[in-house]
Known about the structure:
Blueprint (H helix, E strand, L loop, with lengths): L4 E5 L4 H17 L4 E7 L4 H7 L4 E4 L11 H23 L3 E4 L5 H10 L4 E5 L6 H6 L5 E4 L13 E3 L13 H11 L7 E5 L6 H16 L3 E5 L5 H8 L6 E4 L5 H7 L2 E4 L3 H10 L3 E3 L9 H10 L5 E2 L5 H13 L2 H14 L4 H14 L1
Amino acid sequence: MKLNRVIISGGGTGGHIFPALAIADQIKERNSAAEVLFVGALGKMEMEKVPQAGYPIIGLPIVGLQRKLSLKNLLLPFKLLSSLLKAYRVIKNFNPELVIGVGGYASGPTLKMAQFLGIPTLIQEQNSYAGKTNQLLAKKAKAICVAYPDMEKFFPKAKIHFTGNPLRSNLLQNDAQLRAEAASYFGLDLQQPTLFVMGGSLGAKTLNSTLRNGVFDLASQQVQLIWQCGKSYQSTLQTFANTLPNSVKVFPFIQRMDLAYAIADVVVSRAGALSVSELALLAKPTIFVPSPNVAEDHQTQNALSLVNRDAAYLVRDVDAQTALLPLAIKLLNDKQQQKELSEKLGALALPNASKSIVDVCQQILTT
């Protein structure tokens, strides 16, 4: 049964948005006449990224709980109530057959209202440690699509579908021609080892500080560096970046991630669910430095799902300043270890996640 009218809700980070767009693209691929409406959070990046991808989006005034004592927390109940009411109106007006939640602030109110109205819901949980909101929504969800094994500790076993995380289709090509294009694009030498360090769209303070202290050591050992510093650190690193050798390329944000992955021999990354899934799919030798500033330390759990299978390395945030770059240099100089990591990573990848999730969506409508 084809999907005709679907709401996809969630966002806040690329880790939520890109899987959501991959699901939407797969729905449209199967039925070009299908209508897909996104519901996000006002002021968050989905309000920009989703329209750029060609889909309509409606924003809710929902915000997250501030961990530090803040007057903003006093407004949270009012914003939650306002978001629930707006989600109710959106769902009534659009009349979807199915509502999909991908995580993020807007996902909670939207799925809650869909369940209240008796509309089938599906949860796409990207992380190895499920958030509290998804655990609550799972009780009335028709299905939960997960990317990690052993998720029965969070969700009813009968509802779980092990699908993997949907990924951007433009990342799937990774060949010699793409490597050559990447070398030209970044102005790098194909014969020199290349390290790609990415801290997410906003950047990672620990990674930036570690590189700032050690980047000249990398360059002295003939290591090329693609350094994605994040938009939040662009201004503070601008002057410093001007002093760096040509083998070091600093970017606040990288549009052509496919090219950065293609030329990288080793990747250093935070361990958001999307990054973990992408790196597994591309089988890139990786050192994860999980962010300590996330709920339930789920990034560490994401990374350990690969590290415990000897498919990646992990350096804890507190150890990065002393341990990260020596490990990266050692791995860059060990082609055999790179090969072994790639083989083990590739064996854990789930490349057809988008198709599997939409299969589950269609099953929901036929039962």
